[in-house]
Design brief:
homodimer, 14% strand, 391 residues, two-stranded parallel sheet, 2 domains
Chain lengths: 391, 391
């Protein structure tokens, strides 16, 4: 026997990485509601209610607004695989790890891919997207709203306007923004936006909220070739979520209980207050990190309020600091992805994790860990700066 | 506002449909364990432990034995999309709804598809598979072990032997058998077997256990074209589950807590006792249904112990009976799929739902519902026959 049975003894972590974020006990409790059938009339009511709540957080009237039975990346793949046919042109904004992932997926689906690049840590220049569209038509433009690898918040409106002028469909990755930052799908005129559950919504990971415009549905209907994925075929998934109720997959029942509860918490707080909370506390965090002598990767005003990415100072050992935070304070922050590995820390303040206590805690423990490696700064500088910013 | 906030007030159901099955409170409790990061050292330990437990239920030494972040159908799509390249030959056994689904997926991935058919309710003749293989080479043969639409249990060994003789890879859909019926992956020599969590394992739905032979890994490595799905690319998923620990997706953390606990329950019971429990109680159920005058669709000895499919007697209204069971007894049984819609009931005895109490309950309430529609049989005939069978 290769395994030994022990009690499930998992420590409580303060989750200040790029996600998952901490989950409200009400959400965990909701997930223990007894399982019912995926076609149970009471469960179908819950699906309807969840669609309504998702429309609320996505600020949209899109009929097709539902939860894909997979993680955020399943949402990304669903967005692309439903729109892209082999040979279709796609322009992808690439300024980080998740822009690369969009390219990787689009290529696998046979897209004729054009990259519009910016350095990691900078926004994509909307004019460059416009020029690429003017040069040669593309069916789809895909961009990341909040780049989880860099903490950059991309302005979507000018890109949406360019897409509109050139008749391209706009796909927006809202994985690290939804629930912590405005994702005004209808105001943008975005055609497909997707997210995850475990960041701004503070639900356990496992579902991918997605919303699809009528224009995107029409484009999917007009395909000449079948959608390569059966599991992520939105026309089939929609027939289960809408009044047809045609069995496609067995919905992750308890995850949907949890998601509904997490969305209820968002609605009780209200979108505007929730966004201001994220904005205010990320400003405090940035003030504190700056006072500690750390540089923020993303320039003002293009910083995602949900995720702050700071450069690791010269001579400081990344892993040693993160291990100290985890083992001594049970606190998780994220390391860098791809070329930023060892170069940055990613500090998330998302959903339930986005509290004043957590801002003060992470600044205080980071200062100690840095001091231990010989980093010099005034004692308590980070915490003091954060408190001032909050005053 | 389209939604109204109310408490999550979901009734307790006795789940005797084709899945989900009832979930042990220990499993639901495990899912409320606090969320940690998907690369947290303690979570990585849990992944290792889960792989060991999955190898135990799949009776395999396959290194790649893990949980896909999606439902059972994601497991099916993963099995096919990793092996199939456009133009590759696949032979699919089709004797029900899920054989059709295998065909649908294989076609979307560009396979050159050959169907070996049997009437719904019959097994696939292994000789026909052998003849098809002899006629023209195929890269993959795919069959359903327990057909969820018919309750037929397919003998796998002769098909595996035929695959072995002709150098084809064997894919086995073990969605409705794993945890309730032997799935001896290594003894069969199956190359990819996948399942779900919400049937024989009695965990909430949302993950797809899968196990992959070295031969299948080699075949995937030898591909000339990339795997069409990034999300279901097993080489990437494996690099997260194995010692590389390369981030691919954010694991559904709490679902994995639940799955581990559900697998621990299987191990505590033991495989043999668990299989006998399912066998014994399904025999009792069949004795009872037969005494009520119902006919079982699948012939002896090809009946899945997890799922019994009975023909609805002439003149009996399907929906009326199922609605009465649900509203009066909070008990769910399944209706027919596809051409069997309105023709059969699917009664599952899976995992935690597979109890003597449930056998007696379903026979008793079914008798009442039938009697109300004028069906004649001796009072208590079903229950009496079941008790005799259990004696």
């Amino acid at each position: 026997m290769e395994t030994s049975r022990g009690d499930l003894n998992i420590p409580f972590r303060t989750l200040l990485g790029p996600g998952p974020s901490n989950v409200h006990p009400r959400v965990l409790r909701a997930a223990t509601t007894p399982v019912v059938g995926h076609l149970d009339p009471r469960f179908l009511e819950l699906m309807d209610e969840t669609m309504g709540l998702l429309r609320f957080v996505f600020q949209t009237r899109n009929t097709i607004t539902l939860a894909i039975p997979g993680t955020g990346s399943a949402g990304m793949e669903a967005a692309l695989v439903n729109l892209i046919e082999p040979g279709d042109g796609i322009i992808v904004g690439v300024n980080g790890y998740f822009g690369e992932r969009l390219c990787e997926m689009a290529s696998r689906h046979g897209a004729e891919l054009r990259r519009v690049e910016a350095p990691w840590g900078q926004i994509i220049d909307p004019d460059q997207i416009e020029r690429a569209l003017a040069q040669r038509r593309a069916k789809v433009v895909a961009v990341v709203h909040a780049e989880t690898s860099t903490g950059v918040l991309q302005p979507i409106t000018p890109i949406a306007e360019a897409c509109n002028r050139h008749g391209a469909l706009l796909v927006v990755d809202a994985v690290t923004s939804l629930g912590g930052s405005p994702v005004p799908v209808d105001d943008w005129g975005a055609d497909v936006s997707f997210s995850c559950t475990q960041k701004g919504l503070s639900c356990p990971p496992g579902l991918a909220p997605i919303t699809v415009s009528e224009r995107a549905v029409a484009a999917a209907h007009a395909r000449r070739s079948p959608i390569q994925s059966w599991y992520l075929d939105l026309s089939l998934i929609t027939k289960y979520w809408d009044s047809n109720r045609v069995y496609h997959h067995t919905a992750p029942i308890t995850m949907l209980y949890a998601l509904r509860e997490a969305l209820c918490l968002v609605r009780e707080e209200g979108l505007e207050p929730r966004w201001s909370r994220h904005q205010r506390l990320s400003h405090a965090l940035i003030a504190g990190l700056t006072a500690l002598g750390l540089k923020i990767l993303a320039p003002e005003p293009h910083r995602a309020p949900t995720l702050t990415v700071a450069r690791i100072p010269e001579g400081i050992k990344d892993l040693e600091v993160r291990k100290a935070l985890l083992s001594e304070h049970s606190l998780e922050i994220g390391g860098g992805l791809g070329p930023l590995k060892g170069q940055v820390w990613r500090i998330g303040l998302m959903g339930e994790s986005c509290t004043q206590a957590n801002v003060l805690l992470v600044l205080s423990v980071l200062e100690s860990a840095l001091a231990r490696q010989g980093w010099k700064c005034e004692k308590g500088a980070g915490v003091v700066a954060a408190v001032k910013a909050l005053a």
